[in-house]
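Researcher: Quick sanity check before group meeting.
Model: Go ahead. Protein one:
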Amino acid sequence: MLHAGWDLSRRRLDYCLLDEQGARVEVAVSPPDADGLAGLVRGVERRHGPVAVRAAIESMNGARFVHDTLERCGWEVEVADAQKVKGLAPLECKTDRIDTWVLAELSRRELVPAIWLPGFEQRQERERARWRLFLMRKRSSLKHRVHAQLLAFGHTCPMTDLFGRKGRELLGRLDFPEPWRGGVLAAVGMIDDRDREIAAIDRELRALGADHRYVPLLMSVPGIAWVLGYTIAAEIGDIERFASPKKLVGYTGLCPRVYQSGNTDRRGQLTHAGPKYLRWALMEAATHACRHEAYRERYQHNKQRLGRQRGAKVAQVDIARRLAEAIWHMLTRNQPFAPAGATPALAA
């Protein structure tokens, strides 16, 4: 068996091949496209015979394409966590060739810190939810820009919704000098385009979420409607890959860093590991869940205990972790939300 390490960049793919004893067999460069990868596989087979190859590549944009292409060619490929690779192999000198050798050596020693890769169907679910969030943020940015232009030229906004019917009439009457007036009108038109795109995605997500095995259960959680339910379900994937609620909470990145040495035990900032979209969805849900009777008392207690400056934020993160734990129990047991000690009406 040969062991390969890959380092992917925009225009090239460096690789290093090692044999079972760790000796370098081949060090070269390949184009990172489909034809280049297929030619590389044929070349390795021509030079070294029909030998099994195990490869490792760091997690980055494009690594999934390399993984899928080489696996279709019969190679065994793992995508390594880039941060954990740095921890396993700290180097004073770092080049592309050294990176490929390190990954090949980790593969030879079976020490690759491989990450879990979702299937194609789940990647589709994630992309739908993430694209909706991207459009929402773009729309919010455009609205903030319009409000800023009103403030810059001394115009007040007497209505709560500047982009409703009366707000549009107000924007049409306001006197802006050019090019600011043209910019405001263009921003309003772009907001309308984003509204139509978001509405189309909403209809698609509603239809897909109705048939999803997790979304109906997640919608029973306080603070989670169908949008957050679909996002959380897509980001979690198969709940069976998390052995305990703590594993799922750790995956969300909402746990503080831990520094322990002897009698010293300190907690740092949040790890922010895992997908940021899952953290966003849980924090959005926690914003509403902190007013629910199942979590209100805990939220208020932590908020008052930690003080005005940081109490509300930390208490909200605590509720988000509690929601993640509840979600693990719900999805593993296939049961709706029912907190400990809940009344029959609450559990219904």
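Researcher: Fine. The other one?
Model: Protein two, sequence then structure:
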Amino acid sequence: MTSATKPSSPNSEQLATDLAAIRIPACPAVVTEVLKEARKDEPNFKVLARIISSDVGMSAMAVKLANSPMFGSAARVKSVQQAISRLGTSNVLNIIVAAALRSSVDGLPADFLEHFWDMAASRALCAGLLARKHVGIPPEDAYTYGLFQNAAVPVLMQHFSTYAELYAGAGEHGDRLVALEREHFHSDHAVVGWLLARNWGLPAKIASAIQHHHNPERYILPEDELPSNALALIAIAQLAEFIIAELGGAAQGVDQRAFENARTFLGTTDHDLDEFREIVAAALA
């Protein structure tokens, strides 16, 4: 989703208001444990394997991602240990954060959550794949950003009884959704997502990309407000999102101007776009 509504930069007063009105899910202990291990100079893969193996959902996600087109190997992995060896520390962390994120939101309709997280997983996978075609955009960062981009939507839905109706009414039009969120709740999912990412210890560039992904001025913001490496994450996810929608016959639901701006920023040619469509189509298949 994209937006024509400029978000205000959160200040201390606004943050206090947002935090008071919305309970941001606390960072689970398992994520804290993995972050601590993953940030060591020499992470212990046995420790990471133990943590992932302790949860059936995380184990399945690790093996599935390791066998995905993002890693492009014909040899399929069958165990968590094999998956971790192929994924590397950063992507193992992605698995654990993604699993924790899903489990942190409950009490919502199962069909909504299934669709929402499926869309997030598709966007994350395709953004990671397209990042491999661009110098300077780490695929693991693109994948993490794709997962977290709209992660605050179910958080807001959890807290406000009228949010589901508002969200359904906005459809895939981000500008409309952001305007409605601010009108009714005095905040929006980009700001709340930024708070969530910060609370969970995600890299600053991912938090910044989440904060500004609806900002219509993102491509002209100064570097100290939106670093170029964060802007690149927004652009690559926008490209992935558009191609996914296009392949599904729903490209009209994606902001064409935002897509063209992303293409220009990334230097995507028509030939590149044809190649990217094939990559995304294969991944989604």
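Researcher: One line on it for the slide.
Model: The longest helix spans residues 80-104.
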